[in-house]
Specification:
The protein is mainly β. The chain contains 4 helices and 18 strands. The strands form 2 sheets. Strands 3, 4, 6, 7, 9, 10, 12, 14, 16 and 18 form a 10-stranded mixed β-sheet that branches. Strands 2-1-5-8-11-13-15-17 form an 8-stranded mixed β-sheet, covered by helices on one side. Helix 1 (about 5-20) packs antiparallel against helix 4 (about 130-140).
């Protein structure tokens, strides 16, 4: 309740916590968690921050530097924001006006209070989930919403940089919706400073493409070795749409990405790409689901990676 936000978001958090309280924690005995180190996770070691906003002071300096660096590397972005340990940082929203619209283009980009369709977008792709997804439902301070109206092609990617501090849990949430015939690209980066304190990052990303829409999504995880990253990506494309996802895992002691993509209309197409590079004692854990929920649909899957030292991978 102390995390703030509109009433509907507060109610959703309360429902999420109630669901978490009655959901068993993941176990290596389950096939979907087999070969993972999930039994080593102790949630008692973490406590979420209660502050509902980040003003953008000295504590965000490193994150701001990374945001500028990635933005320069991309060359051009249509919009961007810095998220500090799950909290969108005031003053870092670019490409969007105070009302959540993107510079007169029609793009809605902002937090829950600024984007009109936020309540409908949140949870529209990710239905239910395991206990860690429920934790995200309960403790996400806010979400980053990207809502593209029908027919709009967003020139340049939307960039979201997550800076996650050691020793604290972070529950980032990103929701993307492309209207009929729209096109958008989104890049998310998960990073943080080196530190010996273990941190827990549990991102949930939702992607929706209406008829003949195109959504391209890239996630880059470069967290320090002290972090655990357990990510869930849920996406769905309607008839004639294109849904492309690319996840890259380079950091974290335990790096898990579960990607579920549904093609839900005739001639819809999905592409799931994933890569990782392991070193030391890292574990990279990739889970994918391609759901052909309609006839005449197509999906492609390519997962490539390498491990060195004592690191290992699970697919």
């Amino acid at each position: 309740a102390s995390l703030g936000g509109p009433d509907w978001l507060r109610r959703r958090r309360a429902d999420g916590f109630e669901a978490f309280s009655t959901t068993p924690l993941p176990s290596e005995k389950e096939e979907v968690w087999r070969y993972s180190p999930i039994d080593e996770l102790s949630l008692d070691a973490f406590a979420p921050e209660a502050d509902g906003s980040v003003s953008g002071g000295d504590e965000t300096t490193a994150g701001r530097g990374l945001l500028e660096s990635v933005r320069a590397a991309l060359g051009h972005t249509s919009a961007s924001v810095l998220v500090h340990s799950g909290h969108p940082v005031d003053g870092t929203w670019t490409g969007a006006g105070a009302d959540g619209t993107g510079g007169g283009t029609g793009l809605s980009f902002g937090p829950a209070e600024a984007v009109e369709g936020a309540a409908d977008m949140l949870g529209s792709m990710q239905h239910g989930g395991d206990a860690l997804v429920r934790l995200n439902d309960a403790f996400m301070p806010d979400a980053v919403f990207v809502d593209v109206p029908a027919g709009l092609t967003v020139e340049g990617p939307v960039l979201v940089v997550h800076w996650c501090e050691p020793g604290t849990p972070a529950f980032p949430r990103t929701c993307v919706r492309a209207g009929e015939g729209a096109a958008v690209s989104v890049v998310e980066v998960f990073a943080g400073p080196d530190g010996t304190a273990r941190s827990l990052v549990v991102p949930v990303t939702e992607l929706a493409a209406a008829e003949k829409a195109s959504v391209s999504y890239v996630s880059l995880q470069i967290l320090p070795d002290s972090a655990w990253s357990i990510a869930r990506l849920s996406a769905c494309g309607d008839g004639g749409s294109s849904m492309r996802t690319f996840t890259v895992g380079l950091g974290a002691a335990y790096d898990r990405v579960r990607t579920d993509v549904t093609v839900d209309g005739r001639n819809a197409r999905s592409e799931i790409l994933s890569t990782y590079l392991g070193d030391g004692a890292q574990v990279h854990d990739i889970r994918t689901l391609q759901d052909h929920a309609a006839p005449k649909t197509n999906s492609e899957l390519l997962c490539q990676g390498a491990v060195a030292g004592r690191s290992r991978s699970v697919y």
